[in-house]
Write a structure and sequence with these properties.
Strands 1, 2, 3, 4, 5 and 6 form a six-stranded antiparallel beta sheet that branches. A hairpin with a 4-residue loop joins strand 1 and strand 2. Helix 1 crosses helix 2. Helices cover 33% and strands 33% of the residues. It is an alpha+beta fold and 147 residues long.
């Protein structure tokens, strides 16, 4: 597979598990393709019944912009058309500026709620328990997710 890939270009990759990615393929390292800013293709249904394609960060909480994928797990690779490359570039920037920051803030809030529920006797429990009371209607039972 790697012999067909031109490193440094943005490409479409379909993995054996069905995931479809758009990413810049940087290099091959010990049998793994090194991808920068990998985005997964997601479909959503619009109110009018049509389908919209969206790109979302593939490894959203990765400390780095690189992920490695076993080259044997890639079943399809293709270079993307210029319109998709532009959409990919804009999606990466949008994700960096808006989505990632909001997700981290939400996770921090969930973490504070969970800490207060697990250790209500801690020094900061009053503030945390007030937060729990204000957000308890949004916490799903048996989960660590606030909706």
């Amino acid at each position: 597979m790697s012999k067909d890939i031109k490193f440094g270009e943005v490409g479409y990759l379909r993995l054996i598990n069905g995931d479809e990615l758009i990413a810049r393929v940087e290099t091959l390292h010990v049998g793994n393709l090194v991808l920068s800013d990998a985005m997964i293709i997601e479909e959503s249904l619009r109110p009018d019944g049509s389908t919209a394609l969206m790109l979302a960060k593939y490894a959203p909480f990765n400390r780095h912009s690189f992920v490695e994928v076993d080259e044997n797990h890639v079943i399809t690779y293709a270079r993307v058309i210029p319109e998709i490359e532009k959409y990919y570039d804009l999606s990466r920037e949008y994700s960096r500026k808006f989505v990632a920051r909001g997700a981290v803030e939400q996770i921090s809030q969930i973490t504070r709620v969970m800490e207060a529920m697990i250790d209500p006797g801690s020094a900061e429990s009053g503030d945390r328990l007030a937060l729990v009371a204000s957000d308890s209607s949004r916490i799903l039972p048996s989960s660590n997710t606030v909706h």
